[in-house]
Design brief:
2,3-Dihydroxybiphenyl 1,2-Dioxygenase, domain 1; alpha/beta; 28% strand; 165 residues; 5 helices
Length: 165
Amino acid sequence: MSDRRRFLKHAAGAGAALAAAGIQSGVGAAQASASIVRFDHVSAPMRNTDAMVAFYRALGLRVQEGDRICSVHFGDNKINFHRPEMWEDPAFTLRGQAAVPPCGDFCFVWGGSATELEQTLERVGAPVIEGPAPREGGRNGGRDTGTSRYIRDPDGNLLEFIIYS
């Protein structure tokens, strides 16, 4: 796994875990830095804009579409997906230099039951490629274990849905 994918996986997972734990603003109990308190957002390039927007809406996330970025929102978390016109432009340098779709690896904390998750994934046409499987997540300073299922979005990014018991 590339360093960028590893970073994105842990970054998104940690932000989602903090939101699910009810830490809205401020410092979590396992905080390592007094200055960095949580993620605001992560960003990734996208290729299939229409399919990506429809997919994330079908998952139940709020989607905002802009000329250069489409963002998906859940709790206090956000993923910016850069449209091809933006990330393919050589003048746009505020991005991972080697990032091209699919490069995202995002972990979402699922707040419902395993049955509800399976029904949602079936409804959006996303087959589970691995799981259910026990995984160490970001909650409680990385000490809590949940059960994860993995799928791919229309661009091929890896999505993990973890359920903590």
